[in-house]
Amino acid sequence: MSGLFLTVEGIDGAGKSSFIGWIERRLRAKGADVVVTREPGGTAVGEELRRLILSFEIDPVTEALLVFAARKEHLVRVVVPALERGACVVCDRFTDATFAYQGAGRGVDTGWLAQLEIWVQAKLQPDCTILFDLPVALARHRSAAARIPDRFEAQQEAFFERVRECYLLRAARDPGRFRIIDAAQSMTQIEAQLEAIDLLR
Ligand code: TMP
């Protein structure tokens, strides 16, 4: 595959979604064919699954299976065809979120998640993952002001501490793929940090 697979991650309230448009514009300015998408979602079935996942109290393993079901559909219909034609795919969350939320957050066995990852993705991994990192208290303060919380946003602080820790651990283990953004900074400072990322320069 000749395209570029870029994923964007962070705990709820990290502000990543506000910068996806910026990343898209930057890649387009470099002449790239850009596809912006999200998980769970990105397809008709995926968006339906997203609605279920964000609205209903479900068993954590069921939740992990639904997230991977949405991912398979997304990969087959959107991500892989785009990468095959050489596009840049900018995806708001991917499998790092499953390890962070379902694994560290909800306690689903990470060995099972790793098996599902291979089953659903084979060897496909993001080329680059931009992790928006900030203290949990600040993220919660920011998202509280935004809107009515969904099922994840309504979780306790300890849940998000585990999620954040997992993201940082995965970033430390795979420094070639991850770029960490200090999301506690101002919008202008965050843009400057994004500008310094090799792929976006
Ligand atoms: P978003 O608000 O960033 O669009 O993400 C929706 C929620 O879905 C967010 O709280 C994290 C959650 N999520 C998981 O729990 N597991 C996953 O694999 C993904 C992709 C998202």
Structure description:
With 201 residues, the protein is α/β, with parallel strands linked by helices. It has one domain: P-loop containing nucleotide triphosphate hydrolases (Rossmann fold), CATH 3.40.50.300. Strands 2-3-1-4-5 form a five-stranded parallel β-sheet, sandwiched between helices. Helix 2 packs antiparallel against helix 3, helix 3 packs parallel to helix 5 and helix 4 crosses helix 7. The model has no long low-confidence stretch (mean pLDDT 95).
Outline the secondary-structure elements.
Elements: E1 4-10, H1 16-29, E2 34-38, H2 44-55, H3 60-84, E3 88-92, H4 95-105, H5 110-121, E4 128-133, H6 136-146, H7 157-173, E5 178-182, H8 187-195
The chain binds thymidine-5'-phosphate.
Number of strands: 5
Radius of gyration: 16 Å
Question: What count of structural domains?
Answer: 1
Oligomer: single chain
CATH architecture name:
3-Layer(aba) Sandwich
The rounded distance between the terminal residues' Cα atoms is: 22 Å
Shape: globular
Fraction of residues in helices?
Answer: 55-70%
User: How are the strands of the largest sheet arranged?
Assistant: 2-3-1-4-5
Helix count equals 8
